[in-house]
Design goal:
The protein is α+β, with helices and mostly antiparallel strands. The protein contains 15 helices and 12 strands. Bound molecules: adenosine monophosphate (AMP) and magnesium ion.
Length: about 500
């Protein structure tokens, strides 16, 4: 391009320490992003950069574009793609990063380790028949939703930058190519373990487990049975994650085992969307014909995915396979009760109840039944209830609702804490703003036409989901002809 490469590492503060490359080489392939012809920066997340002790402010636009397209590789980075497998809609497949490169692990002085990964950066040894590329719409979609999830307080991978590649990518039409820079506490998936097991190499599974444990759960190193403790911890963080998804009406859409992160972060934003009208069977993904990944099925699927992880870990639980199977069954049998407990506690918080009392589960399910029957908007109903006054909208004027409301008031007065604290608890758990699908689609369409203002405005609002928002267009569920009920994988 006729420009000398600048010293990104020194200027931006990168500190690469690629611990994954010290693992057996079966788990990855070193390979470079393919260069692109005319990279152009679309968006850079300065706040995220700051929280990673990185500073891009002295770089010119052109240098940023060269960096985040993978055209220029900073000193110390040794890009690689990860091998993994996965159960996709229940079927086992060997996969791997087919269009992603980890630029490196950035280690801060505070000891935080971040994978910095390009998505859409060209073919890798795992591309199979794919072109290794991504398009602007889906990469911006991941940016919007992952950053919204972060602001909602839900563990997630994050988005540092999006660049246009200047190249067209052929999908259902010719679309603008783009690369997302994703930041994750790691990219180790349930599918990474399945890959190691598929190599018939117990030592490899053990090495991977020890690595994941040191990286994510160092405090359980002292347990008497490390593999069992590891599995329990992964299960517990998955339960916390799904409970959080349920809280805000999030539907991941493609909970294959390769899209479930061991760290407990939400990963791989494809056909995901937030529910508008409350209906437990809500599905957005165009390929999820059977509703396998429907809103209310997500806990069951997490448990199913964890069973796949348990199968891989069996040889590590105990030397005796029968004992191992018993360990796995016992832990997995706890899933439903643990989930139910945490889910009920979470729903109670959404209703401003601190400590669970008998009858609370009924109070919650009666409200949900009413919401389903009346096509109530999930987000707005809970937000309406979080106001000090009784909500005065037509939809709440029925006898049935008033009766429920009275019961709830009586129960709220049984809290040891006063009503003000109860309302605060509600406001902290019931967002006003979620990235509603019709708005996501609208801002993406504008961006693809070259107008980024709606995207930037939307991102600014999504930063403060629990604050009252004066711009009603972000609060309103879609009217019928605005509704976008299908999402796509976006490969
Ligand atoms: P996903 O459905 O996004 O989780 O992707 C499933 C698998 O397909 C992963 O191994 C991806 O790396 C791979 N993949 C998706 N899109 C492409 C592409 N355009 N080229 C190569 N591999 C891809
Ligand atoms: Mg994936």
């Amino acid at each position: 391009m006729g420009r000398n490469m600048i010293d990104y590492t020194r200027h931006c503060g990168f500190n690469f320490d690629n611990s994954y490359l010290r693992l057996p080489s079966a788990l990855y392939s070193q390979c470079m992003p393919s260069s692109v012809c005319a990279p152009e920066l679309v968006i850079l997340n300065d706040e995220l950069a700051q929280s990673m002790a990185l500073n891009f402010s002295i770089l010119a636009q052109q240098d940023l574009a060269m960096l985040f397209s993978g055209n220029h590789c900073p000193q110390g980075a040794v890009p690689f793609s990860q091998a993994y497998a996965g159960h996709q809609f229940g079927h086992f497949t060997m996969l791997g990063d087919g269009r992603a490169h980890i630029l490196g692990e950035h280690l801060t002085k505070a000891g935080d380790r971040f994978d910095i990964q390009f998505k859409g950066s060209g073919v890798t040894p795992y591309s199979r028949r794919g072109d290794g590329r991504a398009t602007l719409g889906p990469m911006l979609r991941e940016y919007i939703i992952s950053e919204a999830m972060f602001a909602l307080g839900i563990p997630t991978t994050r988005s540092l930058a999006v660049v246009l590649t200047g190249e067209d990518v052929i999908r259902e039409a010719s679309l603008p190519g783009a690369i997302l820079t994703r930041v994750a506490s790691s990219h180790i998936r349930v599918g990474t373990f399945e890959y190691a097991a598929a190599k018939n190499d117990v030592a490899l599974v053990n090495t991977l487990m020890t690595y994941a444990l040191n990286r994510h759960f160092p405090n359980i190193k002292e347990s008497s049975n490390i593999a069992v403790a590891f599995f329990r911890t992964v299960m517990s963080s998955q339960i916390d994650l799904i409970v959080n998804w349920m809280r805000v009406g999030f539907i991941h859409g493609v909970m294959n085992t390769d899209n479930m992160s061991i760290s407990g972060e939400t990963i791989d934003y494809g056909p995901c969307a937030f529910m508008n009208v409350y209906n437990p069977n809500t599905v957005y993904s165009s390929i999820d014909h059977m509703g396998r990944y429907a809103y209310a099925n997500q806990a069951t699927i997490a448990q199913w995915n964890l069973a796949r992880l348990a199968e891989v870990l069996l040889p590590l639980f105990d030397k005796n396979i029968d004992n191992s199977i018993q360990f796995a069954q016992e832990i997995l049998a706890d899933f439903s009760e643990l989930f139910q407990q945490k889910w009920t506690q979470m729903m109670a918080s959404k209703l401003g109840l601190f400590k669970l009392e008998s009858g609370d589960a009924q109070l919650i399910s009666d409200l949900l039944d009413w919401m389903k029957k009346n096509n109530a908007d999930y987000t707005n109903t809970f937000r309406d209830l979080s106001q000090i006054e009784k909500p005065n909208k037509n939809q709440y004027h029925s006898k049935e609702f008033s009766k429920w409301f009275e019961r709830w008031q009586v129960r709220r007065h049984q809290n040891k804490q006063n009503l003000k604290l109860s309302t605060r608890l509600m406001v902290q758990n019931n967002p006003a703003i979620i990235p509603r699908n019709h708005i996501v689609e609208r801002v993406l369409n504008s961006a693809i036409q070259g107008d980024y203002i709606p995207l930037f405005d939307f991102l600014a609002v999504l930063k403060f989901p629990y604050k009252d928002c004066p711009q009603s267009m972000y609060l309103m569920p879609p009217v019928p002809d605005e509704d976008v009920r299908q999402t796509f994988c976006g490969t």
